[in-house]
Write a structure and sequence with these properties.
Elements: H1 6-17, H2 20-26, H3 31-45, H4 54-59, E1 75-82, H5 95-99, E2 131-134, E3 139-142, H6 146-149, E4 155-162, H7 168-177, H8 187-195, E5 205-210, E6 234-236, H9 254-275, H10 278-300, H11 308-314, H12 323-335, E7 340-346, H13 362-383, E8 390-395, E9 399-404, E10 415-418, E11 422-427, E12 435-437, E13 439-440, E14 447-449, E15 452-453, H14 454-464, E16 474-476, E17 479-481
Length: 498
């Protein structure tokens, strides 16, 4: 504080508060004001003006918005197996690889190729488990997934995905935010930005983590980045308050909280009128949402309300956090109108350097932890008539090699990172059940038919929800940013829909 001249101090504080918006608004030529109004309109509507009434959106940006194209699904449950499961042990059965188990890898597969950890000439590694065909569709599924195998006729298995990233964090970021570097907006944020949410008492995008650790790229995988922060994923915890700071502080009643919030909102409203910063509006809406969540969250997150039969079908236990609990919570959240629910389960990085990351100890453990809950989720959604409107997605960030890694002479079996092909599956949400799409070569090393780049996958998911992936954009840094990137090459894979 400048005690000698308060007028100078006041001037300095006002100058610090000035933004480019003030300059543009007060520009004598008036062109700045015109440009600013256009930018703000683009920011609010962002999808060629197809959103609901702009005033209603300004009051609550999470109100449901009409789809841009005919939707096949209303909600998403995305099951990400962080670390990337080995497709050769799960869905991409290769008899030829069995035949050449532990034989030297052909030189042509190694020439000019860079791997994360493989050095020298590795040995081919056949699947360490048995496969069988399931359902009327005769889908090949591993013995490690006996419960999911019962849903073979519900699964649309895509075996020909590929990416250009072979390290975990960049590959996860590219898959979920459209950018291998930090700073992109997550898929869930884009979906809630484009469609809003059907439940105004809960966030439109909710996230749960299991497996004992965060995914490699951390919370950026559900961040909003340049999108308004009201669209970012809200992480739920498995113990204590489901969401941090949702409860009132000790000694504060709900009535006092309401009065405090009203006073704070009046101050924020004055700031919004003065500075026209859209993040101030986001702040107001988030405070109000947090207040409503105090009642809604404890109820929806309390799985002890479920029947004993339901809890047993998932393998869920209200007394402790688990992937099984999270699968049950995902159904409850979608049932309550949450638009996008994302589950990250850590522990699938099967390198074979020791027992904690090998194919014979860690891999069966992870399969056992997830097989029953995922199958129960599919059954539960189907029995409640929700599967046709809910798109369930399962997969990792890249694939694994058909060769044994053998890092530093390790005797444990495991597979290195492999971006050239990997498997994901979808169910519900209008996709073809009992359908296998794309093929890899006889060793499961590269895609040979119907390749699906990551950006095609992103475009297809947005399209399934009624969003045009090429028109869904947000102006930032002089570009109309999109989940699918700046190029127009990504395409919706209509072949995957019924």
């Amino acid at each position: 504080m400048n005690f000698l001249n308060p007028a100078i101090e006041l001037y300095q504080r006002q100058a610090q508060a000035l933004t480019r918006r003030h300059f543009l608004r007060n520009c004598q030529l008036g062109l700045g004001a015109v440009a600013l109004s256009q930018l703000m309109e683009d920011s609010a509507l962002a999808d060629s003006g197809k959103g609901p009434d702009a005033n209603r959106q300004a009051e609550n940006p999470l109100v449901p918005k009409p789809p841009m194209v005919a939707p096949r699904a209303k909600n998403v449950i995305y099951l990400h197996m962080a670390g990337s499961p080995p497709q050769h042990e799960l869905f991409d059965y290769k008899p030829t690889l069995v035949k050449h188990h532990l034989q030297p890898c052909p030189e042509e597969l190694l020439k000019g190729k860079t791997f994360a950890f493989i050095k020298g000439t590795p040995k081919l590694l056949g699947p360490t488990v048995k496969f069988a065909q399931h359902g009327e569709s005769r889908q090949w599924i591993s013995e490690m997934l006996p419960n999911i195998a019962k849903h073979a006729d519900d699964l649309c298995i895509v075996k020909s995905l590929h990416t250009d990233q072979f390290n975990h964090a960049p590959a996860q970021l590219l898959l979920h935010t459209g950018n291998q570097q930090f700073g992109g907006s997550s898929m869930g944020a884009w979906v809630t930005y484009g469609l809003g949410s059907e439940n105004q008492n809960l966030p439109g995008y909710m996230v749960m983590v299991s497996g004992g650790a965060m995914p490699s790229a951390g919370k950026s995988l559900w961040g909003s980045s340049f999108l308004p922060s009201v669209y970012q994923g809200v992480q739920c915890r498995s113990s204590g308050d489901p969401i941090l700071f949702v409860s009132n502080p000790d000694g504060m009643s709900r009535g006092i909280r309401r009065k405090s919030l009203d006073a704070l909102n009046r101050l924020n409203q004055r700031e919004l009128e003065q500075f026209q910063d859209p993040e101030t509006l986001t702040r107001i809406n988030q405070y109000e949402l947090a207040f409503r969540m105090q009642t809604a969250v404890p109820e929806v997150m309390d799985i002890s309300r479920e029947s004993k039969k339901t809890l047993e079908s998932y393998g869920a236990d209200p007394a402790k956090g688990s992937f099984a609990n999270n699968c049950l919570l995902a159904r409850r959240l979608v049932e309550q109108g949450v638009r996008f629910v994302q589950l990250f389960d850590w522990g699938w990085d099967i390198h074979g350097t020791a027992k904690f990351d090998d194919l014979e100890t860690q891999f069966p453990k992870k399969c056992k932890e997830t097989d029953q809950p995922i199958a129960a989720l599919l059954s539960d959604l189907k029995e409640r008539g929700m599967l046709e409107d809910t798109l369930v997605i399962w997969g990792g960030e890249f694939g694994r090699t058909p060769m044994n890694e053998g890092r530093n002479g390790s005797k444990f079996l495991g597979r290195d990172h492999h971006p050239d092909c990997f498997t994901m599956w979808m169910a519900g949400g209008g996709v073809k059940g009992g359908f296998s799409f794309g093929e890899t070569d006889e060793l499961g090393y590269k895609v040979v038919e119907d390749d699906v780049p990551v950006r095609d996958f992103q475009a297809t998911v947005l399209h399934a929800l009624g969003l045009d992936p090429h028109k869904l954009h947000f102006p930032f840094q002089g570009l109309n940013q999109r989940l699918i990137g700046p190029a127009n090459s990504p395409k919706v894979r209509e072949e995957l829909f019924a």
